[in-house]
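Predict the 3D structure for this chain.
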Amino acid sequence: MSGPSNPDLLTQLRNGRITDPDDRLRAATQLLEGTFYQEMFKAMRGTIPEGGAVSAGAGQDMFESLLDQHVADAAAGQSSRGLGSALYHYFTQTNGE
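Done. Predicted structure below.
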């Protein structure tokens, strides 16, 4: 499953538009991977010291947050060997046992 962005995928899951259990699991693991990346980017950005010639404002914080979300969604959607894929394979292998 690929294509829609993270918010679209979440909306499809919530509205029941993804009905196949296999596709639902794949979408859920992709969303989890995107959330993991976003939190990792947020933590990394938090290590950068504040200050400089120009003070950052709420606009910059919002831009950085949206940028992190976009990059995280893109990374999770393109990854074939990431956390989402590993979780998907784990759940499908242990599901039948």
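The mean pLDDT is 82.
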